[in-house]
Amino acid sequence: MTAIPASEFPERREKARRAARAAGLAGLLVCSRGGGTTDRYADVKYLTNFYTRFPFIPDVPGEWTGRAHAFVVLPAEGEPVLIADDRPERDEEMAIADTVVTGDVVAAVIDALRAAGLEEGRVGVVGSDTLPWSIHARLAAGLPAVEWLPADELLGRIRMVKSPAEVEKLRHASWVGCRATEAMLEKAEAGVTHGEVVAAGMDVLVTRGGILYNSFMSSGRGGNDPTAVAGGFPTWGSDEALEDGDWFHVGISGAVDGYYFDHARSKPIGRPTAEQTRVFEAPMLAVQAAIAEVRPGVTASHVARAGRETLERLGFELEGAFKGFGHGVGLGWDSPWLVESDRTVLEKNMVLCVERSVRHMGYVGDFEETLVVTDTGCELLTDARRRWW
Asked: Measuring CA to CA, how many Å separate 113 from each of 48, 71, 82, 92, 140?
């Protein structure tokens, strides 16, 4: 498996420093959360290769604070420091020289900010959605002269374009995700529950070093008397078995060595009907039309519009919980977003997930591919079987 070169991490931190200086910031406080989950570890791992494994537990003053959280104090001028609640099995996994491992994470962050000369002035916060109110309140009380400013987009812009090593990480993650997706679709037959479908994918994923983020799925029948089967928490929790004549779709996302994959496919249970096929084909054709427009210099908006216009020509509307045509992907859900309001210009080595689901007359179809932008167009990283009908 390709490793991120050790030299890449200080280069990333220097880019972040330059961006902070350009924004008029004295430095950055970067916060991430781990705790054995796949949610929001990206920013600290991007800068230091560190992930905290300890699960979140409420603070007990005098004993511990900030469990499951890690911070990087990154002054615009000066050396960075990582503050964490845990240490990896191998110290060489930390790609940063100055580290503090402590039970009282919040107190150590305040000390590190002071030592870095960031006890006053404008400090940008990256990872603001992972910073609990309780921690922010202690930071504000301990450093009353600091003006805290949102700075998520600053690091987000840097993370949009992947290094060659990151592209290979994402290529491998996509390959693992494709094998798990295919295992799930092969398992999806009459008499099988959603949970049994997910178990088939997990067997592939876990044995290849991956972790499941989520698996959106549903099944049912369309027509004049439509039915639908879906779970909430977990999304595969329904105990109703698939039946001949059902439609079925699954979107599976997860991470391998920290890098995400995100795929979706559809399948008829038994012989496909004409209407099932139409609903399965539409999102696939719309996604392929969007992908055909991907190349350096075009905007995310342009790609999204191409997908929407194709979908509408096929007689379907852009609807559902997510009305975009996809997003960037890396150590998390990255920019750009493939929505018509996003004017981000695509660049070589952006990695994108292009997706669309369709709901029509009680039928559901779902399709998603992953690609990397190349010099002249794009290359698919997804190689999962497309048609199951």
From this structure: 17, 11, 11, 25, 12
8-159 has CATH 3.40.50.720 classification: no
Q: What share of the chain is helix, strand, coil (3-state, %, to 5)?
A: 35, 30, 40
pLDDT, tens digit (0-9, with 9 covering 90-100), for 11-46: 999 999 999 999 999 999 999 999 888 989 999 999
Global pTM value: 0.96
Say which CATH superfamily domain 164-380 falls into: Creatinase/methionine aminopeptidase superfamily (3.90.230.10)
* Tens digit of each residue's pLDDT (9 = 90 or more) over 267-287: 999 999 999 999 999 999 999
The predicted pLDDT at position 91 comes to 67
For β-strands 363-373 and 378-380, DSSP reports them as antiparallel
Q: Are 31 and 202 in contact (CB under 8 A)?
A: no
> What are the start-end ranges of the H helices in the chain?
8-22, 42-48, 105-115, 133-142, 152-160, 164-187, 194-207, 274-291, 300-313
Q: How far apart are CA 47 and CA 28, in angstroms?
A: 12
Domain ranges of the chain: 8-159, 164-380
